[in-house]
Amino acid sequence: MRLSSVLSTLRRAGGALLLGLACVFAAAAAENAADAPRLETNQSYIERVTRRSDLDPGDAMAVFAFVLDSLPDRVKVYPTENYYYFRFYQGGVPYSGNIRLENGTRDEGKVHFAYGVEGAGAAGEDEGIHKLLGAADGVTVEKVGPLAYRIAFRGKSVVFELNDLSGVAPPPGLLGPDERYIGPVFDESAMRFFLVYNSRLKLFHYLLDETVPVPDELKPSRVGDRILIGQRTGFAFYRDHRRERKILIGVLEANARANNYFDGPFDQLPDNFIEGESLRSAILEIEPDLKGKIDRFGSTFDGEVRYLIAPYLYYESERDLAVFHRCATSRRIPAERYYACFVIDEDARGDRPHTLAERRPARK
Fold this sequence. Notes:
Blueprint: H1 3-13, H2 15-35, H3 42-50, H4 60-70, E1 74-77, E2 83-90, E3 93-100, H5 103-106, E4 111-117, E5 129-133, E6 140-145, E7 148-153, E8 156-162, E9 179-186, E10 192-198, E11 203-208, E12 218-221, E13 224-230, E14 236-239, E15 246-252, H6 253-258, H7 278-286, E16 313-315, H8 322-328, H9 356-359
Parallel strand pairs: 1-8, 15-16
Antiparallel strand pairs: 2-3, 3-4, 4-5, 6-7, 7-8, 9-10, 10-11, 12-13, 13-14, 14-15
């Protein structure tokens, strides 16, 4: 039936039905508008860059007040190491930073605040300002839910809702018999992973979480259709020969140097969802010399250093990724060493990278 016929029938039935139909159409239009992409223009960029204010970037508490005042009353912290990232321009200079509700300090009423000139630290210059703020600074941090904290300062308060991934787990068949699930990872790139530990080979993998829509378009690499590269993130994955899954094998080196959202998931471990000693025990199997030196999150007790879980390659071109396919299809690699083909050998990074399977026997 044509729309004109429908309207004619409704007119005969009464104006109330017409009003109801109009409301339905308006609601549908609003929903479609909400689903549409957000347009960004050069005009808005120029106006942000050229806007002037009296904010002093060297005054950490003034910057903290500015950031908090700029937020709505409730925000969502997606990354799993509990960083809430932000950026702004002052005097034409881009600044970026984060508010972090770290596991070890948030229940003590403290919050990390860090910011600096964007990209300066990666260039070896001033790495910016970092402060652990609390009551002595006039900042209060109050737990208001299992994964929610209210931060208040100078009359403004914001509830930070941490990402609840407690029900997230790999689907049946995704993990092998030697693998243990450590926890879910939500990266600041918006990509989700399962952090997995292989107890026989003593190594970690980040497996792509495809139980939710993947916010990137993965296209086959020029070096082989087993290697897929994200068009937005630059993340490279290998399609496992043995299981229906994708293993993270590469992060663009330029992104790692820039320390941007696409620098890899090494800094977004599943802190809120690590069960007991599962992570520390896995790390100590690899590095027993760390016994008594790290907490259950893999950090030194002073919080200055954290064990690096970055088994992937920082690659410059797609050709660099061929090392993984070469190893995975090599007849010289024993079958039991197959998954070591997706961990880059730390001692062989650089001009001629090799996988763990190619360079040395399994760790014991």
